[in-house]
Design goal:
The structure is a single chain. The chain is mostly beta strands. It folds into 4 domains: about 270 residues, YVTN repeat-like/Quinoprotein amine dehydrogenase (Methylamine Dehydrogenase, Chain H, 7 Propeller), CATH 2.130.10.10; about 150 residues, Methylamine Dehydrogenase, Chain H, CATH 2.130.10; about 100 residues, Immunoglobulin-like; about 240 residues, Rossmann fold, CATH 3.40.50.1460. The chain contains 13 helices and 70 strands. Strands 41-42-43-44-45-46 form a 6-stranded antiparallel β-sheet, covered by helices on one side. A 6-stranded mixed β-sheet has the order 59-58-60-64-65-69, with helices on both faces. It is globular and about 90 Å long. The relative contact order is 0.06.
Length: about 950
């Protein structure tokens, strides 16, 4: 990256700036979005009041978090392109916390120069672009009063300083013999920089060079930091374990911190300047801790816990705690007495050291991988059944990669792999990671830190494919048609061997429940609760923040499990689509483009999250845009995840780039989370949320809610082939137990049980609960019986009087159930134990694939908490030994008290989920996997009291 830029002759670079620049790519880009970075966090920053934490990553996003509890507040998305374009290496938050600055390899692909992007923190809007920089940005720093922004550049380009109000370049120093690695402002305005040319440089507040000094202890000073009082400077090195302390006025060496060979290159001072911290590649007792010296680096050394990977950043907090960021990726907060406050860990599988464990079937449809480093927590995934099997036994049909049949050496973590003693052609400094030789030994795949390359047996490259992250493991199917690669971003991808075309990507979430499969075109399949784990990044030019839309927004067009099923039969996505359409009876027509289906975009402008309110009436200002051109038809207001019943009308303020509006709400006298969602006739925007804190008098006596329960159980069908043993009993048992919740969390429990009911009976029940429930209540809907999907994937619940040959007229369509429970103004819990195939007999309720139903109901705009008896197309089991279906058996036990893990008497959604999940797996020997899914806008809350 850096070599490409610095090798440009100055004349060509200047000419390129004068030419008309290109724009970022307009085609949507599929990205993982799991609420956390997916690769190394390169930078961490905070504001002067230390309310917010800003992190930036090579995954091309920057994220804003709460210092208090680590909650994600906003994600910033600069324009990005293929390969390295858009990777972020540097981030800084202005002292007032209002401006976010990010940069890295940013803008070169279209401007032929690097840009620094400045975002407004609250709205997420890109407000300024500092452009024309000649090399990548390694580090950013605001001056203490926020007037200046300094940048460290790669190559030998030195440093730049900008006026943050005007964006003007006010100072540059290009007289550097190596890349600049850090910049830091002192309180009185002095500026400090470090460089791999061996020098530290100290500048006056008006940017005159005061001192230029080499530092003993290492040849490449990596990070240099002023102490809070400005009297000292601490330096860490890239090529040494030393940490040295210099004078803050003239860079003269003062002393060295005690070095036992473990110390890293990331350093920081405590706010009272008495403690010096250092971290980096330290490894002690299986972890990567933080070193802390008392007495300004001259005292005793102690160790603080951190993470399992290299530490990339340290930030001291005023009260003595410390923030850290790592390469896992992870970031967290640790106290001065070595107590971990919290950690935001990476949400990806760690495929490092998994080279020999990646197993693959002959056709590529079954694979084995491991969630953890060096093959720990192995799992198998079957493309045919879409099932994860934890702790699998060895399968002879899953072959490990061949790495021995050809004389290939140096392919493990080196830049110089060879074949028969001859170097393989890689880019300079490109590191090889993994190897797989084809079954016929005529060719081999080499996975590197940024490419997948196919060579023939003579070492001639046939193709290369740029990949999102390091290829930690690779394997080739026995049929020689397809290969899989385990990547550093936590995905596993299938590539067609003859030409390197990507066919499928698989993201297994480390919770070992959720997963997503997708094609590059966006056709996908997802387990329950997993649709929001990937989405489309859409650039809006180089002067605007990019948009991001969850793939769930395109469910109607792109949720195609039938297409995914055919991909590894045809090894061609277009053919897979054609076959899937033929089998389902769909017309052979082009799928609507992603860009034509884009939903609205909404951002809350004010008040700021965390704002206190003393009066129940609060006015929100927000902006909306319509990327697809479809008009916004409604603004949905959610209060703590459910529709706000006291919403007032919208008052138009003005028209701008999009539209700015305000809405006045009457809020309860307590802390609340408010979410706004813009809707058009086709779709809904991503939710925009703020948290507000009540600062007035307490409401005093609070009336307990009422609980309304609709319980439906169908066992005795008119069609005897559909008979079930325990569905009706499940509904009766659930009704009886939940009735005992009266005078607990709920002042009253009202139950309507429909046992072996007709379609009309169930419709009456849905109408009943719709009429009864208010915003102050809680609603539960329990449904047990058969369910089917028609040939188009539409779901139906089967009543007693169903005729399976006339589903539309005699079965209960999902749309009717959805319309009822999503429009209830209360919190809603939906318990669903249903099936597929009216021909299933005996103890099996069928294998209804209800993932689409679950994902739809739990979207933010629908806001339902769903407990589903099984996942994907699994069977839902019942047994006379249990006296119930497995799901209901576990549910009843959990409510009765076994889910009360903390012995408080209150059982929350998450506690009930954990108990049901573990209990059902135990009852069914892993044949059934229940799923609990709730919208991201709904926090965990107590749903029942332990039954005495």
């Amino acid at each position: 990256m850096q070599r490409l830029i610095k090798s440009l002759p100055l004349l060509l670079w200047l000419i390129s700036l004068s030419l008309s620049a290109e724009e970022p790519p307009t085609a949507p880009i599929l990205r993982i979005e799991n609420g956390m970075h997916t690769t190394t966090i390169k930078s961490i920053s905070t504001d002067a009041q230390q309310r917010f934490v800003l992190t930036a990553s090579k995954d091309k996003t920057a994220r804003l978090w709460s210092v208090k509890d680590g909650q994600l507040l906003r994600t910033f998305r600069p324009p990005q392109g293929a390969g390295s374009e858009g990777k972020l290496y540097a981030a800084a938050l202005s002292p007032d916390g209002n401006t976010v600055a990010v940069a890295g390899y940013t803008g070169y692909e279209w401007d032929k120069s690097i840009s620094i992007y400045l975002f407004q923190r609250q709205s997420g809007q890109l407000i300024q672009r500092l452009q024309g920089l000649p090399n990548v940005i390694n580090h950013l720093s605001f001056s203490k009063e926020g007037r200046y922004l300094a940048a460290s550049l790669g190559g030998k380009s030195g440093i730049r300083v900008f006026n943050t109000r005007t964006g003007a370049l006010v100072f540059k120093d290009s007289d550097y013999g190596g890349r600049s690695t850090s910049v830091d402002f002192e309180a009185d305005g002095k500026l400090l920089s470090s460089s791999f040319d061996g020098y530290l440089r100290l500048y006056s507040p008006d940017f005159k060079l005061l001192a230029k000094q080499t530092v003993i202890g290492g040849q490449r000073p990596f990070l240099a930091r002023f102490s809070p009082d400005g009297q000292r400077i601490a330096v860490g090195f890239d090529d040494s374990t030393h940490v040295n302390i210099l004078s803050g006025t003239d860079l003269k060496h003062l002393y060295s911190a005690v070095d036992n060979g473990d110390v890293g290159n990331i350093i920081a001072w405590s706010h009272d300047a008495q403690t010096l911290y250092a971290a980096g590649r330290i490894e002690r007792n299986g972890g990567v801790p933080i070193a802390a010296w008392s007495k300004q680096g001259r005292g005793a050394l102690r160790w603080l816990p951190a993470a399992s990977n290299i530490v990339m950043g340290l930030l001291p907090l005023k009260q003595g705690d410390l923030l850290y960021a790592t390469g896992d990726p992870a970031w967290g907060r640790v106290s001065a007495n070595a107590q971990t406050r919290f950690q935001q860990a990476g949400q990806i599988a760690d495929f490092r050291g998994n080279r020999s464990q990646v197993g693959l079937s002959a056709q590529g449809k079954q694979l084995q991988f491991a969630y953890q480093f060096r093959g720990k927590e192995p799992v198998q995934f079957d493309m045919s059944t879409r099932q994860l099997s934890l702790n699998p036994s060895h399968s002879a049909s899953l072959k490990a990669p061949d790495t021995q049949s050809l004389a290939i050496k140096g392919w493990k973590n080196t830049t110089s792999p060879t074949l028969n003693g001859k170097a393989l052609a890689l880019e300079e400094y490109e590191t090889s990671r993994s190897l797989a030789i084809s079954p016929d030994q005529q060719q081999f795949l080499l996975g590197t830190e940024r490419t997948l390359r196919l060579f023939d047996k003579n070492g001639t490259q046939r193709w290369q494919q740029v990949v999102p992250s390091d290829v930690w493991a690779v394997n080739i199917a026995a049929n020689g048609k397809v290969a899989v690669a385990d990547l550093g971003d936590g995905t596993i991808r299938w590539y067609r061997l003859r030409d390197g075309v990507e066919l499928l990507a698989f993201y297994p979430h480390p919770d070992k429940k959720r997963w997503v499969l997708w094609t590059p075109e966006g056709y996908y399949d997802a387990s329950a609760g997993a649709e929001n784990l990937i989405g489309w990044h859409v650039n809006r030019g180089k002067d605007n923040a990019a948009d991001f839309f969850s793939i769930a927004k395109f469910r109607d067009s792109y949720y195609r499990p039938d297409v995914i099923e055919q991909v590894l039969n045809t090894y061609d996505v277009a053919k897979a689509l054609s076959i899937a359409n033929q089998l389902s009876g769909k017309r052979q027509q082009a799928t609507a483009s992603i860009k034509s289906l884009l939903p609205p975009v909404l951002s809350i402008l004010s008040p700021d999250t965390g704002t206190t309110f003393k009066h129940p009436q609060v006015t929100l200002s927000f902006s909306t845009r319509t990327p697809s051109g479809e008009a916004v038809t409604n603004i949905k207001v959610l209060l703590d995840g459910r529709v706000h019943s006291q919403q007032r009308g919208l008052k138009l303020i003005k028209q701008s780039n999009g539209q700015t509006d305000e809405i006045t709400l009457t809020l309860p006298k307590r802390d609340v989370e408010i979410t706004l969602i813009a809707e058009n006739r086709f779709s809904a925007s991503e939710p925009s949320s703020i948290r507000l804190k009540w600062a007035g008098e307490s409401e005093g006596f609070v009336i307990k809610p009422k609980l309304y329960v609709l319980a439906v159980g169908i066992s005795e069908y008119n069609d005897s082939a559909l008979k079930l043993n325990y569905a009706a009993k499940d509904a009766r048992d659930f009704s009886a137990l939940i009735k005992k919740q009266q005078n607990g969390l709920y002042r009253e429990v009202v139950v309507n049980s429909i046992i072996d009911g007709s379609k009309g009976n169930i419709l009456d029940g849905l109408e009943w609960i719709e009429r009864q429930v208010t915003a102050k209540d809680v609603a539960m809907v329990f449904m047990a019986g058969h369910g089917v999907n028609d040939r188009n994937g539409n779901y139906y619940f089967l009543p007693k009087d169903v005729n399976t040959n006339k589903l539309k007229r005699t079965a209960l369509p999902y749309s009717v159930i959805k319309d009822t429970i999503t429009n209830l103004p209360s919190k809603v819990l939906y318990f669903l134990d249903s099936c597929h195939s009216g021909n299933v007999m005996g103890s099996r309720r069928g294998n209804a694939d209800i993932n689409r139903v679950v994902n739809d109901l739990t979207s933010a705009e629908n806001g339902v908490v769903v407990f589903a008896a099984s996942s994907g197309n699994q069977f839902s089991l019942e047994d006379s030994g249990w006296g119930n279906g497995a799901f209901t058996k576990a549910l009843l036990e959990g409510i009765a008290g076994k889910a009360d893990y903390y012995k408080t008497g209150r059982i929350t959604i998450n506690m009930l989920d954990l108990y049901i999940s573990e209990r059902v797996k135990a009852l069914t020997d892993g044949q059934q996997t229940p799923t609990t899914t709730k919208p991201a806008t709904i926090a965990d809350f107590p749903v029942v009291m332990r039954v005495k």
